[in-house]
Design brief:
The protein has 84 residues and is mainly α. The chain has one domain. It has 3 helices and no strands. It is elongated, with a radius of gyration of 15 Å.
């Protein structure tokens, strides 16, 4: 498994957890343990995502703030794959 694949797997796991915790917090907004878990997971997710985007480019087209087409200039996923 390449470094990119490992990072993507971790990002997907964190994003799933964040989404799941958010759904729970929609119905239990005062659950302190869940809020803490959400903050911890987000604190792990954001730096990993930033690191991934610096190395491999934006994850989605909506991740670019200045120029919505700038993500097209980044290398395509198959252009960054490491040779095994």
């Amino acid at each position: 498994m390449t470094e990119r694949e490992i990072m993507m797997k971790k990002l997907s796991s964190y994003q799933f957890m964040i989404d799941d915790l958010q759904l729970y917090l929609d119905t239990h907004p005062n659950d302190e343990k869940t809020i803490e878990k959400m903050n911890e997971t987000t604190a792990k997710y954001l730096p990993l995502r930033e690191s991934f985007e610096k190395k491999y480019g934006a994850l989605t087209a909506s991740d670019t703030s200045k120029n919505r087409w700038s993500w097209v200039k980044a290398p395509w996923p198959w252009e960054n794959e490491e040779v095994e």
